[in-house]
Amino acid sequence: MTSTSTEALESLSEEIKCYNLPYGALGFASHVLTYYTILCLWFGRKPLWPFSRVSYSWFDLALGGIGLLISTLLSIVTIVRCKNAWELLVIGVWKMSMSLLNGITAIHVAVMVILEKRRVKRERREASDDSGVQVEKSAVPAGDEPGSGAPDRDTAKKEDEAPIKVVLNPMRWVSWWVVLYIPGMFAGVAGLMALVVKDRRRHAGVLKLTAGFYVVVGQANAGDRSTARRLVFGGLVWVVGTFSILAVFYSDWALGMLTDNIPGLPSGDASALYWTYWISKRLPMFSL
Q1: What angle do CA 57, 173, 124 make, to 5 degrees?
Q2: What sections of the protein cross the membrane (predicted)?
Q3: What residues contact 130, with CB distance under 8 A and at least 6 apart?
Q4: Percent with pLDDT over 90 in the chain
């Protein structure tokens, strides 16, 4: 390793100390879980048990809100700490945009479930009231068959008190929050590419990883060219979507290789912030 390469590594190793967000193997695991959680919530499923639908909306709302607040605040801390290293700063913005997508998705789904439950409960109550009026009108005079209307009232009351099961497919509305993620993603990729260019002579593995990333993205979109010609917007969405999904995984391994820290273990002084952020992003996974 030349003196220039050694200096570049030492420089990046010093700069990365300001960066308290996951990367490397731990970052890869974190982002896999984040994507999985978002996908489950888009379909209204419990991340811990995707065979069941989300139902306990107030609990989910609290989880989403707490996770969003903590992860966003810690992302901002990282952005401020890295203000003198613009590449890491914009990567921090990128990861903050993913935290926003994760947390807002959980909150939005929870709110949708709450509103749907209220709607169903209101309809039940109205149906119960209508049933009660109908029973009073059709009840026989007292003395003929006493209590003839009571079973109907009891049935209506039981139906009103029965647990409300909500069946929703939130993707149609919730998936639009991806728009928040895309600008930050492109900014972060620009910063990451700048780091790769700086390091291109020292670490051939990063260049191979970068080439592999763009080849995979290109192959993933190769089969959709005819569709893209017919539907430009649809083709563009597919390309951006594929790039967005794979770029975050690429960033994890690229940063790990650039810093010679493939596991992505945090430095001692940043461990508390790092693990707090990592855990806060997992909170929406416990949506019930």
Answers
A1: 50
A2: 20-44, 56-80, 92-115, 174-197, 231-250
A3: none
A4: 39
Listed residue (26, 18, 3, 8) closest to 261, CA to CA: 26
Read off the pLDDT of residues 39-81 as tens digits, 9 standing for 90 and up.
999 998 999 999 988 887 788 899 999 999 999 999 999 999 9
d(C-alpha 221, C-alpha 269), whole Å: 42
* First-to-final CA distance of the chain: 52
The mean of the pLDDT values for the chain is 80
One-letter identity of residue 166: V
- DSSP sequence for 127-162: HHHHHHHHHHHHPPPTTTSTTTTHHHHHHHHHHHHS
Q: DSSP strand E in 31-168: where?
A: 45-46, 49-53
Q: What is the pLDDT of residues 134-146, one digit of tens each?
A: 545 555 454 444 4
Contact predicate 78/255, CB 8 Å: no
Which residue ranges make up each domain of the chain?
Answer: 3-139+156-260+270-286
On the question of pLDDT at 164 being above 90, the answer is: no
Distance CA 104, CA 63 (A): 11
Instruction: Give CB contacts under 8 A, 24+ apart, made by 194-201.
Output: 194/86, 194/87, 195/12, 195/87, 195/254, 195/255, 195/258, 196/254, 196/258, 198/8, 198/12, 199/8, 199/12, 199/258, 201/4, 201/5
Q: Which two tokens stand for residue 39?
A: 């996908």
Name the token pair of 258: 């650039």
